[in-house]
Design goal:
This protein is an alpha/beta fold and about 230 residues long. It is built from eight helices and 14 strands. It has a five-stranded parallel β-sheet, with helices on both faces. Strands 8-9-10-11 form a four-stranded antiparallel β-sheet, covered by helices on one side. It comes from Myroides pelagicus.
Length: about 230
């Protein structure tokens, strides 16, 4: 899961980023409106943490632009402004939640998990695809009810494939989603192939019905083998 933190208070931004990394999220950050706008236009995120008060612009305006370009990234507004009007406007513009500063990081984690459940899992604690079941809160995978061993990156990769089942995902998109936005600057994506190969082997060994198909020269997609 990839999260963008838009926050100009560097100490708070760093604290949030470190806590999310401990929860195994991939994180990116932006400290001003211009940088944040570039990131939301250029990349996709599972969740955006959006401060309203930015040094060179307003988070509400950024939210408007996000929706104008039809991006569906989930958004949680985090702001020191505990104004009912701001909350209502933010939610009407498409924000998924609103958290007032100061807040406990544990509450932020809970809000993020809740938003991601609604976005990817229809409110459920797991995602089921044929005989494959993923539990994102626990980074657990089962096949026919039996847990299989996967590392953190393998889980993130499988989760991304499952929520985009039957859709072609390019190596660039996979790299950016699982390893972070700076991956668009690397010279080779051989490491994506290596991760796909390992994950495909584990699925096959445990008789998973979904399988990862290669689309020559383009990328991969998860399909039902039956």
């Amino acid at each position: 899961m990839k999260i963008l933190i838009i926050e100009d208070e560097i100490q708070l931004s760093d604290a949030i980023e470190q806590s999310l990394k401990k929860q195994l999220y991939v994180t990116e950050s932006a400290s001003n409106f211009k940088e944040a706008l570039h990131k939301v236009i250029s990349y996709d995120y599972d969740c955006i943490l959006l401060d309203i008060m930015l040094p060179d612009g307003n988070g509400i305006e950024l939210l408007k632009q996000l929706k104008d370009i039809k991006k569906d990234d989930s958004v949680i507004i985090i702001s020191a402004k505990d104004s009912l009007d701001d909350k209502v406007l933010g939610l009407e513009l498409g924000a998924d939640d609103y958290l007032t500063k100061p807040f406990h990081l544990s509450e932020l984690h809970a809000r993020i998990k809740s938003v991601l459940r609604r976005r990817n899992q229809n409110g459920s604690n797991s995602i089921v695809l044929d005989n494959l079941e993923l539990f994102p809160d626990d980074y657990k995978v089962t096949i026919d009810g039996k847990e299989i061993e996967v590392n953190n990156k393998e889980f993130a990769l499988l989760h991304y494939l499952v929520i985009n089942q039957n859709r072609l995902l390019t190596k660039v998109a996979i790299a950016e989603k699982i390893w972070g936005d700076y991956m668009d600057e690397v010279d080779s994506y051989d490491f994506v192939y290596s991760q796909i190969k390992n994950l495909r082997k584990k699925l096959k060994q445990n008789n998973a019905q979904p399988e990862i198909k290669s689309v020559y020269g383009m990328g991969y997609k998860l399909v039902n083998s039956n």
